[in-house]
């Protein structure tokens, strides 16, 4: 019988699932992934780990569940959406949030045990620090392009200054034509392996997040990956990046100011390796007690199942 089944919700990429599986595998815990609720119902396991979403029903009455709410609802009626999720979702045995601020936007019962788990990056990105300083690109960007305000404009602005950019993600035909015109190396939607290869070949990493709620209050995964890889961050100026850079001890290159990449004193913009390791998945999951929580739930299931069998006998 499998210990933990991670259940995907919608079309979200959820890279954390793979980090969770690798981390738990090293601890001797068996895991699997279900693409949706229907598939999860076909898998008999001790703990279902799910990602909200509006989770209206449990996968199985005899198993335990963790519900993770990593982001705040977006679009119109944000508060109403979070209220509906809080009061009308099936009650989990544990809740996980990105941080205390994200938790404060929901209204779950205070009786449900909770833990916080921030975003991390793969420890393999630390190896990029050991590579040659000679790079093929000045700037890299992988993520939302045409459907995120300001991204295409920022890419074209930097390209117009003569910087070599490598870019990946969904882009409209119009944006692709503009990228070609400005010699931006556009790769389309890329695998994680391609993204990491391009990171290793780039001098700087670009981050663009609209300075509007709730996006400006949530951890930027790109920035975490850049910090672990030892790549200086170019970003627009918004709430999360200001607070994170100040509390962590690095500077970022403000996209809204004049940028001259060839005259940058890199030491101010890069964390040392010991600092960067704090943001690897292993460190993040150690810090939040992830293994201890999952192990506790597995033992609860096994204890309850044993009692049920004894009563039946």
Structural summary, described in words:
- The protein has 313 residues and is an alpha/beta fold.
- It has helices at residues 16-26, 37-40, 78-88, 100-104, 151-160, 173-181, 192-200, 221-229, 239-248, 273-277, 281-287, 290-312; strands at residues 2-7, 31-34, 45-51, 64-69, 94-97, 114-116, 137-142, 165-168, 185-186, 202-207, 233-235, 253-254.
- It folds into two domains: 2-120 and 282-312, Rossmann fold; 124-279, Rossmann fold (3-Layer(aba) Sandwich).
- 36% of the residues lie in helices and 17% in strands.
- It is globular and about 70 Å long.
- The protein starts with a strand and ends with a helix.
- The mean pLDDT is 91.
What's a quick, concise take on this entry?
By secondary structure, the protein is an alpha/beta fold. The chain has helices spanning 16-26, 37-40, 78-88, 100-104, 151-160, 173-181, 192-200, 221-229, 239-248, 273-277, 281-287, 290-312; strands at 2-7, 31-34, 45-51, 64-69, 94-97, 114-116, 137-142, 165-168, 185-186, 202-207, 233-235, 253-254.
Summary tags:
313 residues; alpha/beta; Rossmann fold; 2 domains; six-stranded parallel β-sheet; 12 strands
């Amino acid at each position: 019988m499998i210990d933990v089944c991670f259940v995907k919700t919608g079309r979200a990429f959820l890279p954390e699932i793979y980090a969770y599986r690798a981390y738990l595998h090293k601890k001797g815990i068996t895991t699997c992934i279900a693409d949706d609720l229907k598939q999860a119902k076909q898998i008999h396991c001790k703990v279902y780990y799910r990602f909200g979403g509006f989770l209206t029903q449990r996968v199985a009455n005899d198993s335990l569940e963790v519900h993770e709410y990593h982001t705040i609802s977006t679009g119109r009626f944000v508060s109403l959406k979070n209220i509906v999720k809080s009061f009308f979702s099936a009650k989990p045995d544990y809740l996980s949030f990105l941080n205390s601020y994200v938790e404060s936007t929901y209204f779950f019962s205070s009786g449900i045990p909770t833990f916080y788990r921030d975003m991390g990056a793969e420890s393999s990105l630390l190896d990029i620090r050991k590579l040659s300083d000679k790079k093929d690109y000045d700037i890299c960007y992988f993520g939302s392009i045409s459907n995120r305000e300001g991204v295409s404009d920022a890419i074209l602005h930097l390209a117009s200054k003569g910087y070599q950019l490598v870019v990946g993600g969904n882009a409209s035909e119009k944006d692709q034509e503009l990228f070609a015109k400005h010699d931006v190396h556009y790769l389309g939607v890329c695998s994680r392996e391609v993204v990491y290869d391009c990171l290793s070949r780039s001098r700087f990493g670009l981050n663009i997040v609209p300075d509007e709620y709730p996006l400006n209050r949530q951890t930027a995964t790109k920035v975490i990956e850049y910090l672990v890889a030892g790549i200086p961050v170019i970003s627009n100026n918004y709430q999360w990046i200001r607070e994170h850079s100040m509390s962590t001890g690095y500077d970022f290159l403000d996209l809204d100011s004049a940028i001259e990449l060839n005259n940058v004193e890199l030491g101010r913009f890069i964390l040392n390796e010991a600092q960067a390791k704090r943001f690897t998945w292993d460190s993040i999951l150690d810090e939040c007690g992830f293994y201890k929580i999952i192990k506790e739930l597995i033992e609860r299931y096994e204890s309850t199942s044993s009692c049920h069998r004894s009563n039946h006998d």
